[in-house]
Amino acid sequence: MKLTYVSIILLVLSIAGCDAWFWRRIDVTPRANTSFTVDSSSNAVLIDAIRKFAAELGLSCPESNQFPFECSKQPTHVWAMLTEQGVAVCFYATGAPFESTKFEKRMARLENILASAFGAESITSQSAQCPVTVPAAQPSAPGDAQKAARP
SS3 of 116, please? Predict the structure, then answer.
């Protein structure tokens, strides 16, 4: 009887007692003939790629095509912001530790969509934490973009 209680307690703690955080930062750097500037065609391609990913997961996106751009639906948030080198696309989600495979597949899917849009050579990815919230406004000075991209 005592073993049953201990087993139940351990089971409940293992399932409900812990949260896990899943994040990935994907940097998109333009090729020599493209760039990310206000109203550039690269911006439209990037936002379309994020919208495609968001549609697959049922995430809500804004109507505007301005940076920073965020799509979200609890527990998943995807956003993009301008950096000095291009654009940082950030994926952030919370869940249970046993959901890691699901979120790893989602992050890989986002990376694949961006690689299809911009070419694999334009994409670098790291399991680095992005800022948890989207910056309130787009940086106005070139040095501010790098500061805004830091966690």
Answer: helix
Residue 66, helix vs strand vs coil = coil
Instruction: Please enumerate, as own/partner, the contacts of 98-104 that have beta carbons within 8 Å and a separation of 24 or more.
Output: 98/15, 99/20, 99/22, 100/20, 100/22, 103/22, 104/22
H-only helix segments in 2-141: 2-16, 41-57, 100-118
The C-alpha atoms of residue 73 and residue 54 are separated, in whole angstroms, by 9
Q: Which residues contact 19 (CB under 8 A, 6 or more apart)?
A: 94, 95, 96
pLDDT, mean of each 10-residue run, the chain (151 residues): 69 62 87 60 89 95 90 92 87 88 94 91 83 45 38 38
Spatial contact of 46 and 80, defined as CB atoms under 8 Å apart: yes
Which 8-state DSSP code applies to residue 130? P
Alpha carbons 2 and 15: distance in angstroms, whole number: 20
Residue 142's pLDDT is what? Answer: 38
Q: Quote the DSSP letter at residue 60.
A: B
